[in-house]
């Protein structure tokens, strides 16, 4: 039972409690740059998922073989290998999508989420827990990117996944497809989750107070 709970905690940590976008606010560079559409956001999120899970598994398997003095350099080489694989896959699938994402695919190599997981978690845990944690963290990152990309595409182009939502009379909010739009949407989501967390705390505090009075 405890093992199951531990695995579940490893998986859900990055989805909610330590969400890389809305809690730790990591990976801002690709998060703000590529989320002008839902497709771009999902592609970057899935590419990061592949690299994070594969690199975490390999770093974990090699954790006892790599000298501490060269561990960061080793992690970068491992991550860069999987980024190269993703880079060629995206080029093969859609050249237009590859050009839209630009240099941010290659910059996954130095994404602080991936390097941070390699150093703080994968290098200290067996492969299965490390990869489960990486999957949860990646899903949290995908959710964050999609939350930004979908809002920016809906408001900035009136579409979602390229499908028109409001018809020809809709006036796009051009700022949403510009860099400031990413900051506005991110700020909006952060405010929402902050409000939600405080509301949850007040509700729990109210229930605790009622329980104390009844006791």
Explain this structure to me?
- It is a single chain.
- This protein has 215 residues and is mostly helical.
- The protein has one domain.
- Helices cover 71% and strands 2% of the residues.
- The chain has 8 helices and 2 strands, in the order αααααααββα.
- A hairpin with a 2-residue loop joins β1 (159-160) and β2.
- α3 (38-61) runs antiparallel to α7 and α4 (71-93) crosses α6.
- It is flat, with a radius of gyration of 20 Å.
- The two termini are 32 Å apart.
- The mean pLDDT is 86.
State mean pLDDT (0 to 100 scale): 86
Strand content: under 5%
* Physical arrangement of strands within the biggest beta sheet: 1-2
What is the succession of H and E elements? Answer: HHHHHHHEEH
Anisotropy-based shape: flat
Total tally of structural domains: 1
Record the SSE blueprint.
Elements: H1 2-17, H2 28-33, H3 38-61, H4 71-93, H5 95-101, H6 112-120, H7 127-157, E1 159-160, E2 163-164, H8 179-214
Antiparallel strand pairs: 1-2
Key structural traits:
single chain; 215 residues; mainly alpha; two-stranded antiparallel sheet; 8 helices; 2 strands; flat
Can you give me a brief rundown of this structure?
This protein has 215 residues and is mostly helical.
